[in-house]
Design a protein that fits this description.
Distance between the termini: 17 Å
Bound molecules: flavin-adenine dinucleotide
CATH topology of the largest domain: FAD/NAD(P)-binding domain
Number of helices: 16
Length: 460
């Protein structure tokens, strides 16, 4: 052991597990406290009628070399499953029509999603000036400014919704969509930026083993979190509901309820990866301002469903990645992923499997209905959109009362409060998907930088 002082990681989702695993590999003593009966947090896979059913993450982009490294170390390389080429065929559902998402200049100019005026405005995009308020501009204002109202309403609004299920007028361009925002900052525009960054990405990808491909695992994403937990062994404690964090000299003492019994664990460092609204109460005794900033982060309510139908009854589906729906279409469904097309081995010959996400800040009234009514409504909406003539044979769902953190236009101030908290409380770090991005790749990159920070702190 490099240090006899424990590093206590709060939360056993991908952020907590990967941070603990990286520190364990560096030779530090770690313990992970997870409230639930199982690890994984938002990652949870089950099997139904021989189909792989995900409650959380359905597919991820390989945007960091950490994924390749982890899967190799965890002996999961052979289980990695990359999406078929159909992932490039994506649709926007508007006015009862599935419009292909234009991915080239030719398809953009042919697309019926946009008027001629809009297409001309897009050609002028490279000459649009930069934002005057880059840190507080919403993604809606950013896209309208650069590409026009119609591109925002008919297309971008749908992509924003499927990433965050939140309000594009409140989400920050800079913090919620840093890669898109960087195209303006770095290259002066989205069009020239996209071309240059794709070239740079391809070069970097071949150098750093990050493919940019969409992937899952043969037995679903729980393979990843279970394998990390397996490596950590007894260092992961489930049914451990963290209650408070106090100080004993320079050390931290974490109290947790373990199956009805209050226990404590002492360590030199605490890494919190629990959701922001949970971290708020733990941080409050140290820094009230930081706690308020944590509490202010919104988490919309969302329902995710896995619906499987006998193939012959699905009559209106064109193979592809799936579709997404702009707000103006007034649908409860936000997006649908055609799992059977992306990952054929996740379903059977007979069943067509769809992952459906509905609700979010723009459909709050959906959750005034009973659970049964919500499922019935969403299933009927999907059946209408894809002309499905029978009821589903697989129907699995989860209502997320608090889905994903919203990186709002106030995020800069919130992030400043978190950094100030960490400076004033050395050894207490705030991590998780409310910092530096929500995707699986983001969480793994954050885990790496947090584990490096912990090492610097311990060895300083
Ligand atoms: C439905 C859904 C679909 C998604 N789809 C994708 C996708 O397709 N691709 C993608 O890249 N990303 C996707 N994401 C985002 C990604 O899954 C998450 O951002 C990521 O898994 C979050 O991991 P985390 O460890 O930061 O948080 P969490 O997974 O929320 O982990 C936090 C953990 O803390 C625990 N905890 C809470 N309170 C306490 C306490 N008091 N004491 C101890 N433990 C506590 C929780 O039980 C939980 O296990 C999706 C998310 C959801 C919800």
């Amino acid at each position: 052991m490099k240090s006899d002082k424990k590093i206590i990681v709060l939360g056993g989702g991908i952020s907590g597990l990967s941070t603990a695993y990286m520190l364990h590999k560096k030779g530090y003593e770690v313990v992970v406290l997870e409230k639930g009966s199982e690890v994984g947090g938002m990652i949870s896979t089950t099997t139904e009628k021989d189909c792989i059913v995900e409650k959380g993450v359905t597919h991820a982009l390989e945007l960091t070399p950490i994924i390749g490294e982890l899967t190799e170390e965890l002996k999961l390389k052979d289980d990695l499953l990359y999406a078929s080429d159909l992932m490039y065929k994506k649709y926007i559902y508007l006015d009862g029509v599935m419009h292909p998402v234009p991915l080239s200049a030719t398809t953009f100019f042919k697309s019926e999603l946009f008027s001629t005026n809009t297409k001309l405005k897009v050609m002028n995009e490279p000459f649009t000036g930069k934002s005057k308020n880059p840190t507080s501009e919403s993604i809606a204002d950013f896209v309208r400014r650069r590409l026009g109202k119609e591109i925002f309403e008919n297309a971008f609004d749908a992509f924003v919704a499927e990433a965050y299920y939140g309000d594009p007028e409140k989400l920050s361009a800079k913090y919620a969509f840093p890669k898109l925002f960087a195209l303006e900052e770095k290259y002066g525009g989205l069009l020239q930026g996209a071309v240059k960054s794709i070239k740079n990405f391809k070069k970097a990808a071949s150098e750093t083993r990050q493919s940019g491909s969409v992937f899952t695992f043969a037995k679903g994403f729980s393979s990843l979190t279970n394998a990390i937990a397996g490596k950590l062994g007894h260092r992961v404690i489930t049914h451990a509901d963290v209650l408070s964090i106090t100080k004993n000299g320079e050390d931290f003492v974490v109290s947790y309820n373990h199956a009805g019994q209050v226990k404590t664990v002492e360590g030199s460092t605490v890494v919190s990866t629990v959701p922001a609204y949970i971290a708020a109460d733990l941080v409050d005794p140290y820094d009230h301002e930081a706690a308020l900033s944590l509490k202010k982060i919104e988490y919309p309510q969302v329902i995710t469903l896995y619906l499987g139908f006998t193939k012959k009854y699905v009559t209106g589906h064109t193979p592809g990645y799936g579709f997404t729906i702009p707000h103006k279409a007034k649908s409860n469904i936000v997006n649908v992923v055609y799992i059977s097309d992306l990952f054929p081995s996740h379903s059977t010959e007979e069943i067509m499997l769809f992952s459906v996400t509905a609700g979010g800040t723009r459909n709050k009234e959906l959750f005034e209905l009973s659970r049964e009514e919500i499922i019935k409504k969403i299933t009927l909406e999907l059946r209408e959109m894809l002309h499905i003539t029978a009821s589903p044979s697989i129907q699995s769902f989860k209502i997320w009362n608090k889905f994903l953190p919203q990186y709002s236009i106030e995020y800069k101030q919130q992030e400043e409060a978190f950094s100030r908290f960490e400076t004033n409380n050395p050894g207490f770090l705030l991590s998780g998907n409310f910092r530096n991005g929500i995707t699986l790749s983001d969480c793994l990159s954050t885990a790496q930088s947090v584990s490096d920070s912990v090492e610097r702190y311990i060895t300083s």
